[in-house]
Amino acid sequence: MSSVAEPAVPLSHRVPDLGALELLLAVARLGSLGRAARELGITQPAASSRIRSMERMLGVALVDRSPRGSQLTESGALVTDWAGRVVEAAEAFDAGAQALRVRRDSRLRVAASMTIAEYLLPGWLIALRGERPGTAVSLLAGNSAAVAGRLLAHEADLGFVEGLATPEGLDSAVIGHDRLLVVAAPSHPWGRRRKPLGPGELAATPLILREKGSGTRQVLDAALAAYGGLAEPLLELASTTAVKAAAVSGHGPCVLSELAVGEELSAHRLAEVPVEGVSLRRDLRAVWPAGSRPAGPARDLLSLTRRTP
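Given the sequence above, the corresponding structure tokens read:
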């Protein structure tokens, strides 16, 4: 007849916690339960209760109490010796964990889509430097798909993207909103247009566009999918700056974030083209690998983004 082994009792149920072991060591060093309690910042009744609980757990008496003070029993002296080794190991563990935190906090790797990297992150990083002057920050700018890839490959600690949804494999928090504008040079026919564009006309017109994988392209593709999708691009460029330069030179209209074209609109180098019947609004998101949470400087940077007016 086979016997079923009893489940092992967890070590944490058989060994006193660090607080109790530190108290026992203090009693051994000071010769008084009251002085040990004061040193550790607890009341004497709480210290007595902790010693009694430890004695019940171990099944032996540890301390003889008398008006002249507290003396260790023979068993208590043995347990105190073992407790010293456990506390030393815990101190080494704590020092190692602190070293890991220092190493983590000494650097921050940020990956961000072009619009956020160029127009929002500089202000956030200046504010972060004021809070964490010892943290070295590296910034990797790319489109939203590239940002997701960096995070999934553990090449970045925190990312920022704009688009319609959280990339697969990542968790996110919405930190703001953005709007895409159709713009053209004043010399372009659309630059003088007063009648709003409809979604069908916008979809059918060759535009200067960001590359596939960018948040701008994703939002535009989704917005115009019901109208036959985007026409073949007039130009397809990999940076916001290049798209703007091509539009300013009069090559054709483009669609960019209002964050990116504010200066050009104010200086009348570009003109906003009115559009109706289609939403070009998008969320700005902080992203990180699913199942984790930003920590250290990444957590602080995320907090700063939420303070942005």
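The longest strand covers residues 170-184. Try to locate this feature in the token string yourself.
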